[in-house]
Amino acid sequence: MRDTKQEVLRFWFEESQPQQWFQVNESYDREIRERFLTTYEMAADDLCRPWAKDAEGSLALCLVLDQFPRNIFRDSPMAFATDHKALLVAKEALHKGFDQIMPPVRRRFLYLPFEHSEDIQDQVRSVKLFGSMKKEDPVGYEYAVRHKEIIERFGRFPHRNEVLGRTSTPEELKYLEQPGAGF
Known about the structure:
With 183 residues, the chain is mainly α. The protein has helices at 5-15, 18-21, 26-44, 55-72, 83-95, 104-116, 120-131, 138-154, 161-164, 170-176.
């Protein structure tokens, strides 16, 4: 396989700039799609599951299953199709203590699958996890709290409704009209 876990990590943490990670940028999306679509497809089919045996592999797999689809399939239901798989990888990585041997900038991407979950228990855990590195990553902690508040309020992320074909409630529509609603 051409795209190894090391290529994923090198691309994300060395070739990319942190400001690219969470911005809408078609050229960045295209680069991820061109370089890593095959890796994503293989990971989605569980063919990269052996990566999860170590910390770096778990991190790379979380990136491929959680972050990359948001770029590869932006504004499509496929952007969220492997969130559950990323969450399972993250839970297993935390169980093995892999997060504790990573610097905060990398640890964040093991914690994001919890933040992206529409399950309140995962959101509670997300806030706790990001809280553990609040000093090093205060913005990450603030986003975790905001995600949890939205799940507490709506039970789901309203900004995903349209792309997922879900009908928004009047309260969700009112929320979505506010500046900065969604992520």
